Amino acid sequence: MGNVRLEGVTKKFDTRTIVNNVNIEINDKEFVVLVGPSGCGKTTTLRMIAGLEEITAGKIYIDDRLVNDIPPKDRDIAMVFQNYALYPHMSVYDNLAFGLKMRKYPKEEIRERVYQAAEILGIKEMLDRKPKALSGGQRQRVALGRAIVRKPKVFLFDEPLSNLDANLRVQMRTEISRLHKQIETTMIYVTHDQIEAMSMGDRIVVMKDGIVQQVDTPLAIYNKPVNKFVAGFIGSPTMNFIEGKIIRDDKLYFECTQNNIRFSLCPSDEDRLKNKVNHDVILGIRPEHILAKPQNDQTQGFSVFVQVTEPVGNEIFIYFTLGDSSVTYISRIPSDVFPQRGKHFNLYFDNSKYHFFDKLNGQSI
C-alpha cells in the first residue's frame, strides 16, 4: 500500500513559517498534484515527505508507518527532480542500474528491472548511449526510469518538466499520466503550472503562503473554487473579477462599482445572495462564459470596447473594457467571429456561470 498521510505538518525556517499545518491524505495508487505560485511551500512539502527536509511539527505517514525519523533511503520512495542529475560518464543502462547496484541487488534482477523500465519508457535502443547523446525528453525518460527500477511505494516529482520546451512538456505530460496507469503506483507531483495540474491529477492540492487552500478533483476545483485565490489561479486565461455590490430593486442585481452597470442574476444566485444586499462582493466569470452570441435567456448583452485581440487558432482572446471603466477583462470566443480592435462589440455574459466572493476575506459565497 502506498498511501501517504500528513497530519498538521509545519515547517519553519528561523521565525518564518514556510508550510503551515498541512493535512492531506493521499490514497494508494492515486495521482495527486501540489500546485501553487512560487514560494507557496509545495516543494518544501514534497521534500518533507521524501525526508530531505526535517519537519518542525506534525506527522508524516507512508503506508501507515510514521516516517518522521526514518531516513530517505528507508522510506520506500523514489524522487524525480527538475534537474535530471544523470551521471554523464555512464551509459543509460548504468544510470538506470546504479541505484540497484548500490543496494547490492543480484545482477540478473538488475538486468530484468532495467530492461522492463526501458521497455515501458521506449528507450531500449538507447541503453548503450551516454546522456550527452540524448535529447531533453530522452534524458527525462532516463530520470523516470531510474525511479521506476526501484519499484517504490511512492513516486515524488518535483517540477520534472520545467526544463523542457512547450511541445515536449505536453508530450511528457501524457507519458507520465500513461506511466501512472501502467505501473499503478502512488504519485505526488509538484508544479506551478495549473494546466499540468488540471490535466494530470486525480486530485489537486492548491497551496498559497504555506497553507492548503483546497483539495479536490480538477473539475470540482475549476467549477467550485472555495475562494478568490483558487478561482484566479486555476484556469487559463484567468477568471475575470468585477468589484461591486448586491442591490435590490424590483429584484436582486449585482452593480459594478466602477461604472454602475447592473448585472442580472439567475434565480439560484438571488437565493444565495439575498443576505448580501448592500454588501461589497466580487463577481467572477471565466472568459469562456463571456460569449459572442446570446444562447438563452440567461445571457445578458453589453457593448464593450475591444482593446486587443489575440487569435490562437481555434479561438480568439478578446481583451476589453466595460462602460467607462479602464479595467480590462478577457473573453475567449470561437475564431469564426473576429471583433475589430479599437471598436465596440457586443458580448454576452452567461449569468448562470457567475461566481461570487466576499470582498473582505475572498471566500466563495
Blueprint (SSEs and pairs):
Elements: E1 4-13, E2 16-26, E3 31-35, H1 42-50, E4 57-62, E5 65-66, E6 77-80, H2 92-102, H3 107-121, H4 136-148, E7 154-158, H5 166-183, E8 186-191, H6 194-200, E9 203-208, E10 211-216, H7 218-223, H8 228-233, E11 240-248, E12 252-256, E13 262-264, H9 267-273, E14 280-285, E15 290-291, E16 299-311, E17 315-322, E18 329-334, E19 344-350, E20 355-358
Parallel strand pairs: 3-8, 3-9, 6-7, 7-8
Antiparallel strand pairs: 1-2, 1-4, 4-5, 9-10, 11-12, 11-14, 12-13, 14-20, 15-19, 16-17, 16-19, 17-18
Helix pairs in contact: 2-3, 2-4, 3-4
Radius of gyration: 25 Å
Number of helices: 9
**Number of beta-strand segments:** 20
Assign a percent range to the helix content. Answer: 25-40%
Distance between the termini: 39 Å
Structural class assignment: alpha+beta
Q: Main beta sheet, described?
A: 6 strands, mixed
Could you report the average pLDDT, rounded to the nearest whole number?
Answer: 92
Shape: elongated
- Amount of beta strand: 25-35%
Order of helices and strands: EEEHEEEHHHEHEHEEHHEEEHEEEEEEE
Task: Strand order, main sheet: write it out.
Answer: 6-7-8-3-9-10
Which residues sit in consecutive blocks of at least 5 with pLDDT less than 50?
Answer: none
